[in-house]
Amino acid sequence: MRPHTDHIQKTLLPIAGKPTLGHIVEPLLNAGISRINFIIGHLGEQVVEYMKSYEGDFQFIEQKEILGLGHAVLQGMDDTNERLLIQLGDNLFDTDLSQFIAGNHHRIAVGQVEDPRRFGVVELKNDLITQFHEKPENPPSNYAITGLYFFKNQNVIKTAIETLIQRNIRTKNEYQITDAFKIMLEEGEQFEPWECDWLDTGVPDTMLFANKHLLAKIDSAHGLDIKPPVYIGGNVELINSKLGPNVSIMDNCVIKNCEIEDSIVLENTHLSNQSLSHRIAGKDGSEIC
Prior knowledge:
The protein is an alpha/beta fold. The chain is built from 7 helices and 23 strands.
């Protein structure tokens, strides 16, 4: 997402008129989950500031060393037997979170993908997960781990990650949460797969796909030179320009003599005499990915 993420926290890049983090947090709050720990790092102060627009019991914990996802989530855990939900910051889910956290087993959200080598992968048997693999070269299935996890007992996963670190078990030189799951399997814990629809927002292509998907669900701007779906934020000036389809224009932008389709234009961007397709654009068009 560079150069945008050099000065914008990745989870605050917008999709369909709203920061990605908003699409993540609002379903959690709507499901009655108001106590949330945020593991932050690069530009984490922007996350703290953004969350002031929501009400809840929020804690912000800095991961001071980048040692992997297992190490990251450990920073936010407590010594308790309470249930725990973990959600990664670059995926959006279309599922009933109230049902997801109501099971008697640990649950891992999964989805079928064409190229599972980019993801953690699970093997399934008799409606249970029998093995985990972290970004395997030769995936044994096409069921990817999507980044939403439920644990019926927080201490179980916390202890497994601590064991991982004590034994210095690393994959690609990082402490991976999937390796902690393997320890849990060895100790007799059971995991249910939870198949659901999800949107990956981790790279420009997938973020633009998510933008297109979510724009189709909201009220869209219309006009002579607008092909919906298009989102247009506040204080936007459009001059002799054509927009759409699948375009999000954030607040305080000036768009002059441009043609833009399948793109996201970030807040406070001024574009002139440009043709954009399948791009995320900022500033005066000098920042594009």
